[in-house]
Queue: 2 jobs
Job 1
Amino acid sequence: MSIDTSKVADSNSEAATPSKPGPAGAVASWADERLGLATMMKKNLRKVFPDHWSFMLGEVALWSFVVLLLSGVFLTFWYTPSMGETVYQGSYDPLRGVEMSEAFASSLHLSFDVRGGLMMRQMHHWAASLFIAAMMVHMLRVYFTGAHRKPRELNWVIGCILLLLGTLEGFTGYSLPDDLLSGTGIRAADGFMKASPVIGSYMSFFLFGGEFPGESIIPRLYTVHVLLIPGLLLALITAHMLLLVFHKHTQWPGPGRTEQNVVGFPMLPVYAAKAGGFFFIVFGVTALMGGLLTINPVWLFGPYDPSKVTAGSQPDWYMGWPDGLLRIMPGIESHWFGHTISWNVMLPILIMPPLMLTLLILLPFLESWITGDKRDHHLLQRPRNAPTRTALMVSLMTFYGLSWAAGGNDLIAIIFDLSINQITYFMRGAVFIGPLIAFIITKRWCISLQRKDNDTLLHGYETGIIMRSAEGGYSEKHLPISEERAYTLTARDRDPDVTETATGPDTNGIEPKRSPVAGVRQKLREIAFADNVQKPTAAELEEAHHHADHEHELQAGLDGVSADGHQFDGHHLVEDETLRGDH
Amino acid sequence: MSDDNLPDLPPQEPIADPGLPEHQPRPTDVDPALAKRAERQVAALFGLSSVCAILFVVAYFTLDIGDDHSTVLGLGASTVALGATLGGALLLIGAGLIQWARKLMADHEIVEMRHPSRSPDEDRAATLAALNTGLEESGIGRRPLVRNSLLGSITILLAPAVIMFRDLGPTPNQVAEDADYLGAGLENTVWDRGVRVVRDVVGTPIRPSDLEVGDLVNAEPETVFAVNEEGEHVLEGVALQIAKSKGAVILTRMDPEDNTPGEGREDWAVDGILCYSKICTHVGCPISLNERKTQHLLCPCHQSTFDLANSAKVIFGPAARALPQLPLMVDEEGYLVAQSDFREPVGPSYWERDSQASTSE
């Protein structure tokens, strides 16, 4: 390292330009003499990134954020963040002459009188949906594969905060056009704020600059939407990326891929081309969606009027799950000492979302506390090899999904011709029972898949060839899997033995005292590990192979002819052989 | 790389690591004709992208944007063409780059060793030493007076930072006492004794005989439409929006025998015509879905359902309180008017609502 640095630092001409110093080389040399770029870039230009399709999900989020910045800046050139009254005089016939806010009028102007304006508005909205969806799926990928473990816990926390900020950014964004639907959303948000104990009505009056709706909310949300939250998002995304570079990406286990190395393609050229190309793909897809797929047609909703509402009013999809909880929550309100406590609003809106976020943030820390695993991890785990973790996330997903479905209970009722009351009653139970069932099913499913892996390791893969023995019995022929595949299947840790712990009776036969917390932890450890299936030992593998060899011996007469089975397993050429061979 | 801080290799059992598989050349690596073809493919993708970009410019200047949005797929020709060409131009660049990377760029996987996140012990020691030296030289440990007064002054700085936001808005009480528009404050609306109930949108007053049994009418206080001697609206801008957000009501007529008036509300109806606040007591959506047969009113936002024949009590959903009822009577011209303002605050619940409700009566 020191050799290279001195070269770059001392030489005036040659270090940054290996051969002929062309114009590009001259620029590079000029920049390096002032910025010392060569030292910084010499490692990173060929930085290794492992390849797997699931690593692309975070990229979708990153690139859709770039699209949001670009399309958002375009929109700000025409959008007017003002609730001042104006009479619309633009191209859209049905609303001409109607009184509305300047915000709504400028949204209409953008949609109907600025060429490409509607496309950009819709691109911005689609990209926002994509941004949040991609963040969520990326988060699931990270969790299911164990990439949230040490040393990446802080990046997980940043990711969770990004998800929260993205959601808030989305809410402030779709409130800006000041159409009937977004105004209804703000009206509900006013109701949420008022439900806060003690300070609720003050919060509402401060935010709205007086009584709802006032004339301050749109300009204030605008500042939050175009400056405050994007600034935070940008800073946190930068931190997220820097940590990714610092930790180096996780990788799947496989031949030659270990905890100590990272195997993949270099940043320049392959990864840069693929990731850069993928940026254009994401950009292109959102452009197509913006041009071809209508989203949020505010001209159909009309300007906001606090005495009107449309049936089927719903927030954007990512706000759907708390809205669903709000719908299924029974109407409970306490009146204590002359004060009103609205549990029916507080619980689903003011308590549940922060609670879920806190739980998400704590997941890596809870896991390492329960498992006692303080090691660094750079190799990913298959979801099946952490059954309890996988089951926990699936159960959270089930809760999310059911709450989200409850947020569409009116649409479900209409589309499937069901009673909205029965759907609501059902959901009240389902949000509790569903996650429990999902947990149990997922855990058992994972364990079955672990057994299946062991089966493959011990007895080989199913060839699909049915053998008939001399006695007339039929059996399917199994053949051993390749060494690479067998290694990949076994490249995982054995779970700690949780049944024998250090807390057993000591030499005098006296049970040591255990704190209740340690007891809970031990119980959780048992839940996490006790039912898991461990990979076979070397002895078990040896035994199984011995058994297989014996079977092959019995079938030795068939070897080398068509009926030995190799011919039809899809791994061998069969062109030169007839089905019956020389039999 | 025998650094102690690196994670252990997982025990290579029961099978030893066979090592990285040998690199397999791609067809384009060994066949120059195929490589040439891939090169042409990539160039063609980039070329097509340019075509799309030019078409974008053409579409921008030739296609109409404006009032006819039913031209293509309900979207407008300009928007469709711009989206399709821009999308095409971008996607083709992306496809070209990725094809280039997959077919032509060297595809040798390379191995890089990881480094531990943890700093080496000597670095930790050096940092700690530097930190201690710095703190020592500052004297922050030896001079608690300086340290504590600094901490104190920074804490106090929070006060200006928070206080600065005080003027974001008036408090609810300030609005109720000082605001210069009609019906200011959470517990008041523009309704008052003698204010006519008029139809939403058009603003015409309503006679009891205008309504049939089973009808439901969206209505507003007459004040919303009122003009003064100069022909100017009494309520404009914010005041108008606030008046509507609290004053919107629904009128319904039912057979008086179907109605079970609440205690003290026996004379609030006129010929079976009842008037309720339209603002949901849950989070404040305007309620609009009426089930004519059952006299149930459903909020479209969260499906709270109110029984209009029984003081608009909640019979289903997340709302906790009945819709406030507006006492009705008929003025000398025979139009429906309010007997008074609402007897309780309309809209969603809030902390001090109960105490306000009791004082306003």
Job 2
Amino acid sequence: MPAPSYDAIVVGSGISGGWAAKELTEKGLTVLLLERGKNIEHITDYLNATKGPWEYAHRGRHTRAMELAYPVLKRDYPLNETNLDWWVSDQESPYTEIKRFDWFRGYHVGGRSLMWGRQSYRWSDFDFEANAKEGIAVDWPIRYADISPWYDYVERHAGISGSREGMPQLPDGQFQPAMPLNCGEELIAGRLKPQFGGRRRIIPGRTANLTQPLPGRSPCMYRNACWLGCPYGGYFSTQSSTLPAAVATGRLTLKPFAIVTEVLYDRDKKRATGVRVLDAVTNQTTDYTAKVVFLCASTLNSTWLLLRSATDVWPGGLGSSSEALGHNLMDHHFRVGASGRLEEPGLDDKYYSGRRPTGFYIPRYRNLFGDKREYLRGFGYQGSASRQGWSRAVAELGIGGAFKDAMAQPGAWTIGATAFGEMLPNHANRVSIDPSKKDKWGLPVLAIDCATGENERLMRKDMMNDMAETLEAAGVKQVRTYDNECFPGMGIHEMGTARMGRDRKTSVLNAHNQVWDAPNVFVTDGSCMVSTACPNPSLTYMALTARAADFAVAELKRHNL
Amino acid sequence: MASVIDRREAIRRVTALLGGIAFVGGTGLLEASERLHPRAAVTRRGVGRFTAQDVALLDEVADTILPETKTPGAKAAQTGAFMALMVTDTYTDRNQEVFRDGMQKLNAASFMTSTPAQRLASLEQLDREQKAYMDARRGNDTPPHFFRMMKELALLGYFTSEIGCTQAQRYVEAPGGFEPCVPYTPGERAWAGHA
């Protein structure tokens, strides 16, 4: 039987894959969208979306049995009772940790677009130019001007709410109205304005939650339960946003339970011919052919796939003719910051209503506009102010009726923020195939060897102390700092390992995300990143994917692929 | 493309969803682990290793910490059974023993046959003890005080119960809007969180 043929194959259905499928189908291509996990239907499969806390036996917490079954997931918040089904089993899909790396994955239609934090920020030329200016790694092959129109484009469709602030390090975009700061945050933001030369600014978090309707989607209902799936389509996910658009073209074929084991490569034509798919349920193998292949399987999974592909030509895999494939794995480092109390006369008479699914943001100010630190790059803060809930009662002295009624009322105003710092690319931070260990489907697993370095260590001091200094300067009391230790992967912002570049000897992809050695293969997820900047990366994946899809279709028309 | 769904349509969709709730998580991945750490069986005779008498004791402890006021108390929210479940399913062996030893101490002090005033006095004494102990404790090498465990589980069990969310606090599943700054009068209940 001849291999089923499509114009394009997209591997992975998360944030990047969903965008690739939407753009390619809307531009007239027939697209096969492959997803290694199960399908999750929009709305009808969000089985826990509207449950109250009391509807979970352990009220959402995790059990000892769950800890035993999910040894990696238990390291942080993903191990919980409310959406356990959406996180990958360490047992079925193991990997080798040469150094500790917390790999939190979602293998299902929509991928981590269903569970993501939704913070959406543009990167600026401070980010795209940094490697070149400082002589770090390689230069980004693009600048802000190349991606800016694509930010415009994806923001309009995804629906990003935010405020226009005119800050060059965090460019404004095509925003829906922002989700406002609450009264505690507004107070501190105002107090901060005249301090530090006005460079530390509290702005509303920019988030992929709607404040105005979009076709087929309601504005956010302020449930703050996004990670359970939103029955209103209130936040951007593949299911709420890109998949319906792709389906509407009539040119999309979505195939769940399809594990791509390799990209098929024709050494004479120097092109990919398609992909080989292992059915995750039946273990049967099928080859599919296409003119174009988009790898959007998530940072480490796209690279894992490249490492397994075209090994008859390059033993190190497709893209390994450069020295870059598998190298320069990065993540954001965080879990460090400060918090304190707002002991303000009059504020105890203020509260808020509705559960806002975002907080405030303090854009990067270090090593910018003349500031110079002992480390390179910088960090931003995500935080919020709120009134304490009942859990304050655990550490307080008290028993009986008056205590109970007091704890059922909102407590003191508190405020806190966590820093998200840039991690420098480092050739030594790498992934490779571990032939000694196989996953449930017989594929040799990925070995991860990654650690943060001296630059991050130095930056973390500022990340912690700056927040304390900022809060105190704004009149916050009882300020406490914390550094809860951070291992790569915990940020769930893994980036790099198949970076873009200007030179095929030092990069895997060119400026349009094409694999140098196979121009009809595009990698547009986090693997393509050349540096991490400090703002959250997903919006940039969306823009890069839409841009690459536009280029791919134009090249197809010019018969260049 | 589908047209913009209005709020009524959205509510209809959610209502349809509520009718179709299924159990999530029974994928078999947990089965082997649950043989090692079996989930507490909940029957009329008790919860896991906790007998019905044990659960009754925990109900009374929780209800002394969080009694009925204008709103129902912890016993009405079946907090004792929840505490027994959490100890069985989530506590380490060491902490389970500390918890059960604590129950023995309460039984030895005839907690169940004490008057409400005596119960309050004895738990207030334990509360001061646990607070002093926990404030001085460093790291996890020594177990927490048993009464800190009881108080924490009672608070969690009560304030995340349906009574605790919807009566002691205010619970709105889908608020539909966000007001960043509203007047607050002392005595008004807190908003409960979503799951």
